[in-house]
């Protein structure tokens, strides 16, 4: 261990600004006698991300021994409370198994270097992609990114986990165009400010700002108004940052010129509409940018539903399909829900790489299908993914979200009473055949919505 620490000490280069917080681990640096640094992937206010080689994986014969290694800023190292809080948040992040969230393996330290190990990242941070496209990404490029960001955040929000520092620098875009969200809860592990003070200056690059004396952390140009007031964090605070990031992806610029929410609210700034968006898409982003929490969608799932929208014509066309979806979906879901109470026999990270990629591809395809309101095909893709990895929690969770989306869509049904009666008959038939299904909240809500539509 001492040799590893000494090796690390000789392979650290201070950055030109002279700051103790901005040091770079050189290629060849070894942490804990295990992780060999290869090169820097990206840097943010809370630390830097490197590509590293895991010698333990190599010893086990793994042909893909690389990991992403996030080295946290050195200002984290001197506060014992900080280490405990970070370890707690890292443990929560380990529970987030979703294709749009970077998989966290472990939290550790080597001497004065505090770091997280994550699944390998191959691509570039979103802030670099935005900088390379100053007029914004094309709609074809932007929509999958936006959908992936919403899906990842929604998954975390459903489990009571708030990001608290959502911004482009904490998002990674892989070479295949998939997104990975990093640093869940790390900023929230830092004690929040209580005096409502503003930073002396705003870094237009969107770096995390630390308040001297209390180790508080936030990124001023992405933090919600309530965060500056020291209020308890809610998913709607992440939605404010999410809406800003969506705006940047589409336009290449910050909706309030990187101005912190308190100042933007004081000046009563309003974002310029984004060209090329459908009305409901722009409306959802505009709502997400509301300065007051009660004006925003309550969480990322609500934001995504609003962004996708569901026209009456789409609902009417989908009613007949929905009946088949119920039979197909609930028959498979009945078995899934019982099984999913148990952990998978093999952890996802232990599956063969080709199988993992297959599952991730199916899940990514499902996201696009759901965006296009083709829930029937999306459901079929989820079932394929489940067959590849039985009892996979995020597959069953996504399945439940599809059913919830269907229930929500029914609330806006047109006045086609014949189609509604047909769908209601299908629902009641399914509920009558199985007592377990009859008790499912989503199905009960769907039946109630259909009955109300006929009143």
Automatic annotation (TrEMBL):
PROSITE patterns to which the protein is assigned, alphabetical: PROTEIN_KINASE_ATP, PROTEIN_KINASE_DOM, PROTEIN_KINASE_ST
Q: Which InterPro entries match?
A: Kinase-like_dom_sf (IPR011009), Prot_kinase_dom (IPR000719), Protein_kinase_ATP_BS (IPR017441), Ser/Thr_kinase_AS (IPR008271)
* The UniProt record lists the keyword Kinase: yes
Q: Which Pfam families match?
A: Pkinase
Its recorded name reads: Serine/threonine protein kinase
Amino acid composition bias (Basic and acidic residues), ranges on this chain: 14-23
* Organism of this sequence: Kineobactrum salinum
Instruction: List keywords of the entry alphabetically.
Output: ATP-binding, Kinase, Nucleotide-binding, Serine/threonine-protein kinase, Transferase
Which SUPFAM superfamilies is this protein grouped with? Protein kinase-like (PK-like) (SSF56112)
- Residue stretches making up the Protein kinase domain: 35-308
Give the region (Disordered) as residue ranges: 1-23
Molecular function in Gene Ontology: ATP binding; protein serine/threonine kinase activity
Keyword Kinase: yes or no?
Answer: yes
Residues binding ATP, per UniProt: 70
